[in-house]
Structure formats: C-alpha cells, structure tokens
Amino acid sequence: MQADFDFAHRPLDRDSVFYVAGHRGLVGSAVWRNLVAAGFTKLIGQTSGELDLRNREQVFSYFARTKPRYVVLAAAKVGGILANNSYPVDFLSENLRIQVNVLDAALEHGVERLLFLGSSCIYPKYAEQPIKEESLLTGHLEPTNDAYAIAKIAGIMHVQSVRKQYGVPWISAMPTNLYGPGDNFSPTGSHVLPALIRRFDAAALSGAPSVSNWGSGSPRREFLHVDDMAAACLHLLEHYDGSSQVNVGTGTDLTIKELASVVAEAVGYKGDIEWDTTKPDGTPRKLLDVSLLKDSGWHPKISLVDGIKSTVEWYRSNSTDVRG
Question: In what order do the strands lie in the sheet with 18-21?
C-alpha cells in the first residue's frame, strides 16, 4: 500500500464507517458515546467474544468485511500495579498481538485516519516533570509495569513507521490516568482511583473505622475524566497530524493522599485513612506536559471533584454489573 493522505485540520466524514476497537472498555465506550453525540452514523465494534483481536486471521477478515475508513485503537489488556507486576508476560504478549494485528489490517485495507491509544507509563520512571513527549526512550521505565509500557512503546513506533513508510496520517495519543463510567473496579486488577472508590464506598456502607491503602500516599498523579479523553481523541483526529505521540491530560496533579480525601468526601466516609508502606508506591510523580494538545486548541472540561462525584454515582447505580 502506498498512500499520501492529507486530513489534518479537516472534519471527518460523519457518514463513513468508523471502527472503535475495544468499544466496551473504559476508553472505547467513552469514544463511542462521544462519536454518537458528534453525529457519526456508521460506528462499528465487536466484543472480545465476537472478535478476538489476538487472532490475526479474524482481524484481517473483519477489516475486509467492514472496510472502516477511520479507526480508534482503544483495545488493550490493562490493569493496576499488582496485575502488571504479577502477569508481565500476559500484558506484553497480548497487547503486542492486538496492536500488530489491528495496525497491519488497517494498513492492508486502506484506513485513512487511525488513532492509537497508549499510556503515560511509556515514559521513564524519573523523567523530568512535567513530562514532555520527547522524554520517550530517555531513561529506565517503572519496573512494576515495564512489560505493558514496552508494548505501548512498540505501538507508537508502529504508527510512526507507517507514517514514515506510507505517508498515512495516523497518530498516537498518550493519556494520563483515566477514570469514569465503565471503569474496572476489581479489588486486585483496578487502577488507583476506581480501587479507592470501591474501598471507601464499602467502608462507608459498613461503617468501618479505618481504610488502609497501598503505599505511602506521597506519589503525585494526574487524572482525566474519560469523557474528556474521548473528546480529545476526536479533536486530535481532526486537528493534528504529526509523528510525535500527543500527551492528553489536565496539566495538574495531586498526591494519592489528597486523592483519597476527595474520594472519601464523595462517598461520605468519615473514618480514618491509613497507609501500608510495605506496599510499592510506583513512580513518584507522573505529570504530563500537555502544551502540544493545548496549542492545538483543546482543553478539558470536567473538574476532578465533579468527575469523581459523578463516577461514584455511576458506580453505585451499576454496582451489580461493574467489572470486578
């Protein structure tokens, strides 16, 4: 395939086929909601039971049959510190297979615009803060999730290679910590914010005198509501065409202790908050430099306090159905 598309700063055709890989996940479902609201009429998606993205033959057959013009690759095996540290082979192997199959099939079948979603864990553990896009591959990764990070770095390089070899304007976006409706609230496989919501909500309901959390609570983290992330994805597809991955976040952070207090207030928990320092903290700080994104004209709209409140409400309304 040899292509030289030019779709930068141009609205996507709302009536073209648009495939959202991973449309049932946290990010994918938000992307789907946002695209529906934006007027897209031909969205397609398959559950993992309907289409195994790790299976190359199935993926190529799906692309040949559906012929998508646009793709957001949000499908991935994800998890928190414990899951990443315990099952590095799974996170490396499964994500590499998903990415290679989808990206190769998209190239084979002439997908014009594609956005690959990664993670801020691609950056070195001790990268200068806030982290700029050019910090990629300048230092050692956080060892508790380095296998997942390597897979995502490979995805970025794959997209950059397609751009270089074929001239197709595919792009990559690296979100900060995401949260919102549809998150994974598993006590062993979730990320920090949904884990805190589940833990504090249970404590509030049971009247527990204290809640114990992993680590010291001193690491600083940045959080972005998934609906803001979805809006940023469409914005980038229509307004950005560059080889560098784009950081997507708020540009502000807080300590995990401060986050726990916000969650406790949102669920109405009044007990003590304790910290288990025998458990790992992970990266001490991970704040993204979002200058590139802001310069393109995009800014988040949902505050952390409001976002956590609405996520708690969603969690309580869907407590019997949430993942985990």
Answer: 43-44, 18-21, 70-73, 113-117, 171-175, 246-248
